[in-house]
Structure formats: structure tokens, C-alpha cells
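pinned: reference chain
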Amino acid sequence: MHALPVEAYTSQEWFDLEMKTIFSTTWQFAGLVEDVANAGDYISVQAGLNNIFIVKGRDNRLRAFHNMCRHRGTQLLRAVGKNQKAITCPYHDWTYNLEGKLISVPKKEEEFPNLCNKELHDCGLNLHEASVDIFKGMLFVHPDKDAPNIMEFFGDVEPCLGPHIVEELVEYQEKEGEPFYTKEIKANWKIIVENYIDHYHLAHLHEGTLNMYDHAKAEFGWAGQHYWFNEPLVPEYMADVENASPQPLIKANKSEDMRVYVPWLFPNIGITEGESAWNTFHAIPLAPDRTLVVIRSKMENASEWEFTKQYTKSSMSKVWQHYGNKGKYEGDASDSMASGDFMEEDVYACEQQQKSLSSPMFSVGARAQRGEYAVMRFQEEVKKWMEKHGAFDKK
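pinned: its C-alpha cells
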């Protein structure tokens, strides 16, 4: 019932292999296009064994480089920044331009008389290049300079995604300066993924929090190594969705066939494309038993007044007297299973599964033929990708 051994979820050795053979060999989510909107803007991301930054040049081109000075390997740039004029190492002030060329070495003639007698950028010490590309309004990086075309990686799944025009949406901020939802979960990243693509649990664990969607009519499958999923709104919610939706509806969704799309892009980025929000769900492996989840949300480009009006209409809708926000159990809202928050329910389930892996009694007793088939398929994709990149080659 399991394509991977327990060690795949608990072992540091296996985790290290994944960093080397999965996360260092795939396109990795880095952010949204608007994160580097202007010349000199940059973001950095950990892609397996590599820290990579994306920077927009004065020519408005996006470029990606390995985030290490060619002198001693010191990290050049921290997480995010704006209007960078040049890239200077904080350790010894070696400086590169936005095209990754070495342009300045302090005390060059005194300290490095033999470094180069011509232009510094001809000395072979420019930044190591990586690859950057855009898919559905998202920025991705690849550690290789000559990475496979991003559409070779995502092309099969693109027709299965929602109709949302991501570039026309705007990012939602619940609090000023805190645009992202972040949560460290005490579970292996693959458990997080398996929960995300497990159709079987939706009508059970989330019977009171996600019952505005018609799980019985879900459609799902695989396109290459990527999982696609969508399901319609239940008729009662659909009939009053213009009033019941908590936020203004996304205009690109056609009302006659409004669905929620929840694909998973291999290896570690999910997208939730709903009637009123578009979200990224980034599962970042930290350790064999720890994963950082970062969620970013975009919504229709409407005024604050439109959002206020829609929230008021939604709170008065009779739909919510029956659907949504009911915890699995009754009790204090601090209890994940009584919180009425489907994310808290999922976190609880994932962490409990991780704990059970250490028990000698652990086993998978049965697998739902339809609802859990994607879990096995994902495990097979992980194993296949690792084998392809030499994870299990004999030393």
C-alpha cells in the first residue's frame, strides 16, 4: 500500500538525497512576478542545495544567479530587496553588477596583483548563472544555467488549470507588512503533499469546513508528474454565490461552470484557484519531520469598499447557516478539530501521521481505490525522479 519506506519520511539520509536529486534538479517556486517589478528588485530562494536569487536588470530582464560571492562563497543578498544598484558582498566588498559581472575588488593591485590585468569581468570570477522563468504569473528558478524549458516541465498540466488570469489579480494583505500565511508543520513535506492531493479525506475531515464544494463530483488525474484536480460548487452555494462569496468573485470564472481548481505541481507547490481567491501553497522542506508552509493569496482588483460590501452580503447569506466553518468536533476554538478552520484540521492530521511513523505498529491498512490513488502515484513519482537522478546508485 506504500511505494516508499517509512525511512523516506523520517531519515536524514533520505531527506539529504531528496535535496540533491529532487529539489536541486527541478524548477522551484520563488515568488510572484510583481516581487521583482522594477530594475534592481530581487528575491532569493533555497532550491535544494542551492540558494538562488532573481534580480531585474536595468534592461528589465530577469536573471538568476547562485547567491554566493566568487571570492569565498559568502551569501550576497538576503531574502528580498528593492532598487539594488549593484551586488556587493558584505564580507570583503567584492562587487558585481546586475548582470552578474565582477566590477570591483577593493585594493585589487595591492592585495591581488595577479588577479587580472584586464577587465575584471574577463577574469572568470563572475557569478554562477542559474535559470529563471515565468509560469502562470509565478517565478521559478532552476539551479542549472541551461535548464530544460519550463514548458517542458509544466506544459502537460497547463490545460488542466483554472481560467484565472493571475497577472490581473492583486495580492491580499490581512495586515500591513504581513502578506503571507506561514506555518511550520511538524511533518515531512511528502505527508503535506499527500494530504493536499488526498480526495478521500475532504468529505470526512472537512465535512464542516469545506462542504460548500461537491466532493462527489470531483475530477482529477495526472499530467506528467503533476496532479490536477477540480470540483464544482454545491448547488445551494452556486445558486447564491454572488451574495454568499466572502470576497468579490473573480471575473475570469464563468458562472455557468464555476469550479475550484486545486492542482499540485511537482514537487512542492500547490495552487488553489477558487471562485474568489487564487492561492499558492508552497511546502518548503526544513528537516525530515518539519515543513514550512507559505501561502500567498491574490484576489480580484476591486476597491476596499467593494470588499466591505461583499463581506457584509456574505455574512447575511442563508448559505452560511448550513455550509462552512463548523469544526469536526464541538469544543474550544483553540482545539484544531473544533476551530472551524480547514487548515488547522489538516495540520493536526499531518502531525499525527508523522508521530505514528515512529511506532513499530505502523502500517497502511488499506487504500481507497479512487480517493487515495493519487497518494500512491505521488510516491511513485518521487521514487522515479530520485532514481532518474542517481539517488539509489550503488557507490
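why pinned: Residues 373-388 form the longest helix (16 residues). The two ends are 29 Å apart (CA to CA).
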